[in-house]
Design goal:
single chain, 317 residues, alpha+beta, 2 domains, 13-stranded antiparallel sheet, two-stranded antiparallel sheet, 7 helices, 15 strands, globular
Length: 317
Amino acid sequence: MKIRALAVSVALTAVLTLGALPLVAQNQINLGDGLFNAHFNGSGSPIITTVIPQIYLSNGFYFLANGSASATGQMAGTGTYVIYTPSASPFFLTHNADDSFTITQTSPIFFKYTSATGTLTGQLTFGTISKTGQGLLSTMTGLLTAPGGSFAPFFPNGGNASFSIGLTFPLQQLYLIHGFSAVEFQNGVITGAGSCMPLTQGYWKNHQGAWKDGSGLFLGTNFYTNDQLENIFNTPVQGDASVDLAHQLTAALLNIANGTSPLPIQATLTDAQNLIGSGFIPENISPSSPIGQQMTGDASILNDYNNGLITGACGSR
């Protein structure tokens, strides 16, 4: 009995000791003040353009941010980062009904972190920026793709990026007037993304029990219940571009609800919804007609997305 009591005591001591060990920090890169100022230009329309001043042009690249950074977890250390692009206007913002903005990127934006312990490179694809809140701050989110450098193994599925953006004028007012606001990357964080591979429209057609969209979805301006969406999936294309687009758009929306990042196809999603518009599926649109060709083009992009040829990264949930 004494031996057993001693063993239990030793085991309990070991558990308590292990429980007191500090948690391992997450692998992430923390970005400091970006120092440079760009401009967001309002034009009295829902579109806000971005302009990087000529003074930040060096060796063919415009610099959006350049500052100190630190890494935690297995990358622990300190260093510097830069965000740069070959275009003086690499993206523009489109106003949404909730005063947030969708970002449409027109040029690649590159990221590089350098420290004594290692490096991380990649491309940033931004998706949204929040309305400007207290302290004239907005939150800009995106993805880090094509990771390279010695720290790339810690980002096998890319990364999720979030930046605090400092402004001199609220974006939700700027889009209504002709004017501009200085904008600066004040701080940010990049963390490793999980794997959220998309699934094909054939999968979703045959697995309605896996749908996470709630009671249905909007295609264009019309709401369809899950049963109606299943009927659309079961409707043959038969020369109707609207059905082809509805198949792939529904699958893409279900993939997004399931966790796949929408960032690489945001412009296509918006265009697809606008093309469907107020009509009900099927709309009997010939693929050879002007709108039919646009629908077929969007359906092809969404098909690539649903087959995992565009992204396997997770969205913000």
